[in-house]
Amino acid sequence: MSCSAPDDTNTDQNKNAFLVENEDYVDLASKYDGESFDYNKLLWYINDLAEVPLPDPFVYVEDDTYYIVGTNDRNVNTVDCYVTKDFSTYTHYRDIYDPSKYGGWENDSAEIYAPEIYCFDGVYYMYYSADDKQGVRRCSVTVADNPLGPYKPLVNESVDGLNYPLFMKDENSERALDATVFTDDDGKMYMYFTVTSDTQHIVGVELISPYEADWSTYRDLVIPGTVDSESEEQILEWEMYRDNKVKIAEAPIMIKSEGKYYLTYSVNGCWNKYYNVCYAVSDTPLGNYVKPYEEGKLWTNLLMGFPGTPDEDELIYGQWEGFASGTGHHSFFYVGDQLMIGYHAHKNRGWNSKYYTPRYFAIDYVHFDENGTPFCNGPTYSIVNLPENISGFSNVAVGGVAYGNNVENAEKSNDNYIVDCYNLDNKNNEVALGEGESYIEIKLDDSYEIKAILIYNSAYYDSYITEIEYIDFGNGNIVYYPQFCEDFYVNDETEFIYPGSCFNIEFIKNFKAESVRIGFNLPNGGSINEIVVLGK
């Protein structure tokens, strides 16, 4: 396999091509050197897991600057922060909170986990968990006058955050970690965090202030494996793939959409390859939370990650090895108007052990369907366009009308939904291309200045395509035979194609267009996933 154009290229047609590679456009597949891609970092990103070694990441946004905190791989006894404006270059700030300087309630060798930063009334609060002097993990909060600290224990007339953790229901409270805060539309604040008893599960409580809880509102919200927070029967087997007796639901993050509360969380343990993000939904902030479930189906409440099964006879994960592992413990953040998910993944993409492997920060897109339910296009390991607030270009295909000839589901080509879990019942969300000649055309809702186009391949090995005949924007702006980098995206041994695999074309000089037609000539047919046109 290769990233070169197909052998049967029509050379006479190519001579008449209106756009010339490397003069008029860059085909990113040709920039693969066998190990990595060379690409324009002002327009694209790829989750290469190389820049930010930060498990349990949380992204705080202020003035188009992104502050990323998390569990510190460099020194777990303090908190570090990575700052970026473009998710390409990062500045590393060390020790923005160092508990050893204060001699407080934390163990002398306190391990700080899962910090999160918020700003309330001009004060910056960093929520975190650490072991107390009895070795029990507790949640608390420190304060600073800027996002980079230094953060200090909070002491005032109401609380003593130096000598006591501020979020402990009583002295007999369970082990607690992963505190996150949600402010509702009415201004009420809630905290969600993880406790460990018979299971590791998620609880919630209303806050009186950023540093005080109303413990009378405390309740269990998400139990691993149960359909809702009022059930004890554990039937969602995919949430319980961890080997030992304690089942895990942790790392909660709340997102509200169309009046519904989506409590999102990770399952199966951070070192497990099946560490994924799931969700439950409620009409109120403190439940009852219900997980979408259909009897006989798997992963019905998956938000982001890839599904699998521990059954050796159905070990789907073997096909994914080398793509991604351990994608979870996330946060949501906005880049301009675009909602994103930040999460960690195992640096070793073929990870298959319960022992430690480095975890690195990654990002992907979050959208909402017609019912307001969130869905993620990820995890990705492909060249993806940066959000408009960074690149200056948005996906103008979304507002257009899609139709075609000798195709099925043409309207799925610009619906923002990228199939990334091929072993779920998702094939009807792709565009089926018939045998022989076919095309898909998207009539844009206006005339736009075009910068690039991404054509997402099928997520199914038996349906992906290796050849596109042409991409025609009209007015002579035609690309013939864009390349697909099979060397990077396809594993023939396991019959697997990376979800989110793309044809990527970037135009050196922008041009105006009102439509785009993509033509195919496939002897056996095939499928594509999504068409993204970057313009402004």
Can you put this structure into words, describing what you see?
This protein has helices at residues 11-15, 317-320, 388-391, 486-489, and strands spanning 25-27, 44-45, 58-62, 65-69, 79-84, 91-97, 113-120, 123-131, 137-144, 152-153, 175-183, 189-196, 200-209, 212-222, 249-257, 260-267, 276-282, 302-304, 328-335, 338-346, 359-368, 374-377, 384-385, 394-395, 401-405, 407-408, 431-433, 436-457, 470-472, 478-480, 490-491, 496-497, 502-522, 526-535. The chain is built from 4 helices and 34 strands. The chain is globular. Residues 4-16 have low confidence and may be disordered. It is 3% helix and 43% strand. Strands 1, 24, 25, 26, 27, 28, 29, 30, 33 and 34 form a 10-stranded antiparallel sheet that branches. A 4-stranded antiparallel sheet has the order 3-4-5-6, with no helix packed on it. Strands 7-8-9-10 form a 4-stranded antiparallel sheet, with no helix packed on it. It is mostly beta strands and 536 residues long. The two termini are 36 Å apart. The chain folds into 2 domains: 11-43 and 393-535, Galactose-binding domain-like (Jelly Rolls, Sandwich); 65-381, Tachylectin-2, Chain A. A hairpin with a 4-residue loop joins strand 31 (490-491) and strand 32.
